[in-house]
Structures are given as structure tokens and as C-alpha cells.
């Protein structure tokens, strides 16, 4: 089984050094004279710690996922040959569509947000932010289960997930401005993803793309980068402790569920969007 992410670790490390050097020697302001966030030691160390924890957890979790995918693949009568070029094209689009919905639900359902919020917890935006990943990766599982059921070989599904995340690493930067219009229209770019990481009202719950921006455009969740992005959360957690970053929202969710007065409220806390409170309709 190929794990592109583990093999790409040296590339990640080199890219971080190059980006840091760009801030150090080429300046930290954009073409409009506005400051870029750059790197901060404690923030970067937290992101690297979260990334290392994610890698270690996924050593075991991906083995479990492979077992689940294999069981589904053996159960279904459908078979898509990995030797056929069109299977890889189809897999590219279906994997990216699955990622869109996983990412969107991770923002719209608080139980999933409790895992994903880790990635948005930094108030800086650089390549190290891409490594700030969850220690509870299990929430992603349901969204890719249809692929082995459709007959995709399990290892190809894991490979597609890896190349999607590998691509996304490189959009976490302020060093690249807007790209040519055709690229900006079709693909997720640093500009689009900067907007996604913004806590500004205009940017909330927008730009869920993995590789292709077409899903956001078709489904009404696209927002171009228009105003200066304010990175982080609506209510920032103000901690660099990896355990606090990893589990703070699960702890807050547990407190809300425990204090709820009815089972309906408990379910709403779990399944409604972040910030929901009793008496609200949405």
C-alpha cells in the first residue's frame, strides 16, 4: 500500500524551510503593504506536534480503514480494474467529491467539527498550518465507504486520499497570490483556501474544496478572497498545548451535552452546527 503522505515528509520539511527563508529574506508584507502572518515559534511547534501525532495515530487507524474497505470490497460484486485509465479518472473525481462532503459536514455538524476544529485553531497561515491535523481521524470514514462498494480496490482509495491531502499541503501559504483566472476557477488555490481559513463573517463555512473548486461553485459554497483574512476561530482557544488543541472542542461538547435538559437537546448539540444553543432553529 502506498502512503504518499509518509513518503512526502522530507518534501514537507524542505518546503517549510523554503517558506520560512522567504519570510526571513524576502519580506513579510504583500503587494498592498499589508503584513503576512509568517511563522511564530510556539505556533509552529504546536502545528508540527499535531502533525506528528496524526501520523502516529494513522499508522494504526489506516490499517483498520484498509480492513474495513477490504471487507466492503469483498462483499460487493462490483469490480473496477485498477489497470484501466478511466478508473483512475473516475476515482479522482469521486474521491474529491467525497472530500468536499466530508469537509463540509465537518463544519456543519458539531460532532465532526470537534475533530476538524484542530486544523483551524492556528491564528497563523503557513505551510506548517497544513500539518495541524486531528488526533481523531475516525470522523472521515463514512464518506469514502461508497468507493470500495462501487468496486474500487481498497489500496487505490487510500492512495487517492493521500494525493488529495498532499495537494492541499501546498495551498496553505500567503507567499502565493492569485493565480491565472482559469486555474482559480477550476482548482483550489492558496487564495481560495486562505478565505476558507478566515474567521471573518464573509468567509465562514465557504470553500470546502480539496483539489477542485467546481463543487463549491456548483453547490453554492464558493467565496473569493475579497478582504484581509483574519485567521483562526471565531472564539480562539489561546493555547499551544497539543492535548488542549486536540481535544478542547470535544471537552466543550461533552459539557454541553451533559448540561442539556432533554435527549432532543443532547442530539442537537451533537448534530447541529457549532454554536447551536437551545431555542435556536438552525
UniProtKB/TrEMBL annotation:
Membrane topology recorded in Swiss-Prot or TrEMBL: Multi-pass membrane protein
Any one annotated GO CC term: membrane
Chain segments annotated as transmembrane: 47-72, 84-102
Location relative to the cell: Endomembrane system
Record's keyword terms, sorted: Lipid metabolism, Membrane, Oxidoreductase, Transmembrane, Transmembrane helix
One MF term in the entry's GO annotations: glyceryl-ether monooxygenase activity
Domain (Fatty acid hydroxylase) ranges: 88-221
Protein name, per record: C-5 sterol desaturase
Source species: Deinococcus arcticus
Amino acid at each position: 500500500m502506498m502512503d504518499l503522505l509518509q513518503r512526502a515528509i522530507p518534501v514537507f520539511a524542505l518546503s517549510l524551510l523554503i517558506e520560512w527563508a522567504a519570510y526571513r529574506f524576502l519580506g513579510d508584507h504583500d503587494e498592498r503593504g499589508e503584513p503576512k502572518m509568517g511563522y511564530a515559534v510556539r505556533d509552529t511547534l504546536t502545528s508540527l506536534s499535531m502533525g506528528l501525532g496524526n501520523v502516529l495515530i494513522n499508522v494504526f487507524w489506516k490499517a483498520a480503514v484498509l480492513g474495513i474497505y477490504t471487507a466492503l470490497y469483498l462483499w460487493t460484486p462490483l469490480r473496477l480494474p485498477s489497470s484501466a485509465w478511466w478508473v483512475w479518472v473516475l476515482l479522482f473525481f469521486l474521491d474529491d467529491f467525497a472530500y468536499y462532503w466530508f469537509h463540509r459536514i465537518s463544519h456543519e455538524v458539531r460532532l465532526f467539527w470537534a475533530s476538524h476544529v484542530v486544523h483551524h485553531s492556528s491564528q497563523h497561515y503557513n505551510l506548517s498550518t497544513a500539518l495541524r491535523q486531528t488526533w481523531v481521524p475516525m470522523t472521515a470514514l463514512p464518506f469514502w465507504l461508497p468507493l470500495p462498494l462501487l468496486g474500487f480496490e481498497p489500496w487505490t482509495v487510500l492512495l487517492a486520499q493521500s494525493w488529495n491531502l498532499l495537494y492541499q499541503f501546498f495551498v496553505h501559504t500567503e507567499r502565493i497570490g492569485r493565480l491565472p483566472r482559469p486555474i482559480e476557477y477550476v482548482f483550489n488555490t492558496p487564495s481560495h483556501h486562505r478565505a476558507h481559513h478566515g474567521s471573518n463573517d464573509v468567509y465562514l463555512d465557504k470553500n470546502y474544496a480539496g483539489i477542485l473548486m467546481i463543487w463549491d461553485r456548483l453547490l453554492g459554497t464558493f467565496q473569493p478572497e475579497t478582504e484581509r483574512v483574519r485567521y483562526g476561530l471565531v472564539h480562539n482557544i489561546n493555547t499551544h498545548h497539543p492535548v488542549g488543541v486536540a481535544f478542547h472542542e470535544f471537552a466543550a461538547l461533552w459539557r454541553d451535552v451533559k448540561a442539556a435538559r432533554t435527549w432532543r437537546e443532547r442530539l442537537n448539540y451533537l448534530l447541529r452546527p457549532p454554536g447551536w444553543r437551545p431555542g435556536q432553529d438552525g
